[in-house]
Amino acid sequence: MNYYDKEVRNPVEKEHHLKLNNRKLLEITGVKEVDSFDNEEFLLETVMGYLIIRGQNLQLKNLDVAEGIVSIKGKIYEMSYVDEGGQEKAKGFFSKLFK
Do you know which InterPro entries this protein is assigned to (predicted)? Predict the structure, then answer.
């Protein structure tokens, strides 16, 4: 069997999990992209939508792009998903957020 005979399959969407240990270490799976981050806020694109993590002294501890795993350490105050009606509205929201 050569390369061209292989069956083309749709990639299965990765699972998305959040694991928070003592508000000090957050492990996230199903991450597509890290859009932005600083010591108070992370913006991640996950398979379930955009996720905002807010806290104090936040640091990127581990980033595995191939597996979609991100670990963040610091004091976690808030985690929230940004759900907008359409992609244009989401772009408008993020452009206002990062001006």
Answer: Spore_YabP, Spore_YabP/YqfC, YabP_sf
CATH of 13-97 among 3.40.630.40, 2.60.40.2000, 2.60.120.260, 2.120.10.30? 2.60.40.2000
Which residues are CB-neighbours of 93 under 8 A, at least 6 positions away? 82, 84
Return the amino acid letter for 64. Answer: D
pTM exceeding 0.85: no
Strand order in the sheet with 69-82: 18-21, 25-28, 69-82, 49-64, 41-46, 31-37
Span 69-85, pLDDT tens digits: 999 999 999 999 987 64
Confidence bin at 89 (pLDDT 50/70/90): very low
